[in-house]
Amino acid sequence: MTNSNDMPLAAKPINRAAHRRTDEAWLEQAILREDALILLLKAGEPFVTAEGGLYWFGPEALRVSPGSPRLFLGEDKAGAPIFALDLPPKFDLAGSLIAGAGEFSDFRQAAAGMAAMDANCASTARSLFLWHQSHRYCAKCGGANGVVEAGWKAQCANCGAEHFPRTDPVAIMLAVKDDRALIGRQKFWPPGFMSCLAGFCEPGETIEQAAARELFEEAGILCDPSRAEYVACQPWPFPSSLMMGFILPADNEDITVDSKELESARWVTRAEMRDIIEGKHAELFCPPPTAIAHHIMKVWAFRSD
């Protein structure tokens, strides 16, 4: 059975220890502890080892780029504090203290080689740092925002307004009819790459209604949201979404593609979907296991309705 707690980027989360976020004295001491764990990011890219895993530093990380924004992520099972540092986009790795130790890597690529807890920590840090970068100014008065509560809140220095990190709900879904499922592709994807359809939830609608609406808007497929089957959800730090996966029975078969959203869409049989997932299809391939789309497709492909 697919479970959100086992989903890549969400599996084996740490104790967020939210009660520590307002304790400045504790935080200043914790990041200097010998057992402190610190990860580095630059422009959303994590610093990884030559083997591809997340590179964990101790307090020495503070000397790599003094003054870089920091985030308290929480504590591991042994109680060790976990932090993340956001290095400047122009940080010169070649001339730094960590030259030769590893490299900054594209998050999608790097996440596939990380341990479950590491991927969760890096994903959380990426979302928060990107949110702060896009929320430097107060939406109420235009004043400069300051980072407070160990990175989990922004507060305006002028009017005092508090701003909290947002998470955007996204429906990602597979329409199915009889022994076939609908998959589609965007024009900038690699040739042969196809996936589930997806779209953001709008104000005033449920996530199931969003799934049905997006299927009709993008592909002309009618579905009853009351028949939507929930599969699982996954935090997705691009920049800060919560992907909610569904399977919906379709009421029609004729596809009408919205060319602004999709390049193409097609029905595939269950046997074809299995080949796609296993990398055996002669023409098509799908997202890797790090993406929830892979798991939604797999749930349907390997069961008998």
SS-based class? alpha+beta
Order of helices and strands: HEEEEEHHEEEEEEHEEEHH
Give the rounded overall mean pLDDT: 97
Number of helices: 6
DSSP strand (E) fraction? 25-35%
Number of domains: 3
Q: What is the CATH class name of the largest domain?
A: Alpha Beta
CATH superfamily of the largest domain: Nucleoside Triphosphate Pyrophosphohydrolase
Task: State the total count of DSSP E strands.
Answer: 14
Distance between the termini: 15 Å
Largest sheet: 6 strands, mixed
CATH fold node name of the largest domain: Nucleoside Triphosphate Pyrophosphohydrolase
Q: What does this entry look like structurally?
A:
This protein is an alpha+beta fold and 305 residues long. The chain folds into 3 domains: 131 residues, Nucleoside Triphosphate Pyrophosphohydrolase (Alpha-Beta Complex); 32 residues; 134 residues, Nucleoside Triphosphate Pyrophosphohydrolase, CATH 3.90.79.10. Helices cover 20% and strands 26% of the residues. The protein has 6 helices and 14 strands. Strands 9, 10, 11, 12, 13 and 14 form a 6-stranded mixed sheet that branches. A 5-stranded mixed sheet has the order 3-4-1-2-5, with helices on one face. A hairpin with a 2-residue loop joins strand 1 and strand 2. Helix 5 packs across helix 6. The radius of gyration is 22 Å and the shape is globular. 35% of the residues are buried.
